[in-house]
Amino acid sequence: MNVDVDFDRCEGHGLCEDQAPKVFRLDDDGDLHLEFEEIPEDQAAAVRSAIAACPVAALRERA
Fold it and tell me: What is the C-alpha to C-alpha distance for residues 63 and 55, in angstroms, rounded to an integer?
């Protein structure tokens, strides 16, 4: 699984980090970082929850 992040749209709410803390990390400036280029299968459900929780639709699963 892969995820695309629209970094211009991301506002640093942190909901993705709450849903998938092993995958998403906000730094001290509120900038989002992905811990993996390809999401491990055991994190796929958490990432899909994070995608659904993003209030600005900055996350999207890549086909």
Answer: 21
pLDDT, tens digit, 9 for 90 and up, residues 42-55: 999 999 999 999 99
How buried is 21 (Cβ within 10 angstroms: 0-12 exposed, 13-18 middle, 19+ buried)? Answer: middle
* Across 4-11, average pLDDT: 96
Size of the chain, expressed as the number of residues it contains: 63
Nearest-angstrom CA–CA distance, 63 and 22: 21
Local structure of residue 28 (DSSP, 8 states): T
- What are the backbone dihedrals phi and psi of residue 44, each rounded to the nearest 5 degrees, phi first? -60, -45
